[in-house]
Amino acid sequence: MTTTQRATTQRTTTRTDEYHDQDSEPTANAPDPFRPTGPDQAAAEKPALVRWTQALERTRVIDRVQEPVHRLAQRLVAEPRNRTMLHGTGWLGHAAHPLLTDLPLGAWTSSTVLDLIGGRRCRPASRRLIAFGVLTAVPTALTGVAEWAETSDRDRRVGFVHALGNSAALGLYAASWSARRRDRHAAGVLLSLAGGVVASGAGYLGGHLTLARKVASRHPAFRTGDDQAQTPVG
């Protein structure tokens, strides 16, 4: 074979290899040209609840209603002794509000369980649990307002909607107790179920504030360099 023939054969083989490479399947490490990257990728991967919550944080129209209420909340913690007691930092070491939420929510959830599987004989106990939840919701709400008084901007908006949801849930459970007292058990159960749904939505926002936004008071001994500047201390 002459030198010219060898060169021609080599060029033909190279073109054939390139052709097959173009048609081959992409490797596992190859970038997907149709997959969004950068900020677009982060937005595409956000769950719907995350997108909704972030939109709520940016909804400035809420400020028209929450700002006057927030000024009242600040008066609640203006006295240092009240502030320390309601925040829980002086006797618990950190925010008392998350701990107290277990009381009404636990009582109301237990009442729902009795409604669904307890039968007629459990109706008095279920009614008492509803009443216990309504009563313990009062100190729970006060400690929540004290925490909310220390927030600003995005957290304040989410906290306001969180409080509205909890207030609606409290109203539904109070109405449920009233209906049960008048022997309207079926209506009471329906009101309890509605209250549970509303409380769950409000609880999601409360969890967002505590876990994602780090909104919670704490004793100075528990403060770290990663804490947000707005986190109430002491």
Automatic annotation (TrEMBL):
Residues 1-13 have a biased composition (Low complexity). The keyword Transmembrane applies. InterPro entries: DUF2231_TM. Residues 14-23 have a biased composition (Basic and acidic residues). The keyword Transmembrane helix applies. Residues 93-216 form the DUF2231 domain. The chain crosses the membrane at residues 129-146, 158-175, 187-205. Keywords: Membrane, Transmembrane, Transmembrane helix. Pfam families: DUF2231. Residues 1-45 are annotated as: Disordered. This is DUF2231 domain-containing protein. It comes from Phytoactinopolyspora halotolerans. The lineage of its organism: Bacteria, Bacillati, Actinomycetota, Actinomycetes, Jiangellales.
